[in-house]
Inverse folding.
């Protein structure tokens, strides 16, 4: 299978891959993940499949974001929304640079929870986002109640900025500057991009 981005992570000794979401291939799987107990309190998309299909079609046609399935050694297990801050509701909450990007994520498969995978996965996606040379900041706005995820973002190099009110939640606005990310991870030997 062709992946949009693929990297071997030495820490977990697994290959992390991202592939753009395909409505027909991935729709049912993502809907299944949205129904999971560990997902729906934060995503609020535990809705009937027909309604979810409409939501996913709309999300896929939104040019300011790209949706990905995340794979571990070729097994789909996570869902990602990488977006440009310009054109997103979050751009009202701070003064963004033109190429700031943001990220939403979830681990869908329960068997992958609690295994220390969130940080390596997030690190791989942020590394992918920084492939865009004009991007100097990746932001996140996890649900302010989601202490575990806020902690993972901090370990990756994100710094909490302030609580923000969004249409669907109160989020913790967090910034990951390129310089901080590269200082922390660029020469760590943990990541080996697969050409």
């Amino acid at each position: 299978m062709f992946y949009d981005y693929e990297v071997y992570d030495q820490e977990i000794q697994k290959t992390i891959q991202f592939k753009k979401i395909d409505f027909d291939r991935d729709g049912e799987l993502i809907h299944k993940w949205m129904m999971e107990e560990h997902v729906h309190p934060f995503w609020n998309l535990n809705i009937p499949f027909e309604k979810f299909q409409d939501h996913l079609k709309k999300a896929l046609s939104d040019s300011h974001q790209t949706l990905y399935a995340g794979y571990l050694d070729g097994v789909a297990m996570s869902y990602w929304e990488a977006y440009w801050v310009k054109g997103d509701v979050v751009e009202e909450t701070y003064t963004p640079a033109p190429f700031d990007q943001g990220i939403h994520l979830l681990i869908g498969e329960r068997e992958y929870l609690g295994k220390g995978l969130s940080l390596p996965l997030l690190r791989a996606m942020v590394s992918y986002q920084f492939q865009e040379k004009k991007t100097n900041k990746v932001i996140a706005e996890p649900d302010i109640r989601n202490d575990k995820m806020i902690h993972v973002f901090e370990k990756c190099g994100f710094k909490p900025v302030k609580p923000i009110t969004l249409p669907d939640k109160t989020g913790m606005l967090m910034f990951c500057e390129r310089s901080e990310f590269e200082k922390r991870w660029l020469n760590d030997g943990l990541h080996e991009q697969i050409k």
Q: What stands out?
A: The longest helix spans residues 23-34. The domain at 5-193 is CATH 3.40.630.30 (Aminopeptidase). The helical segments are 23-34, 40-43, 49-60, 118-129, 147-156, 178-185.
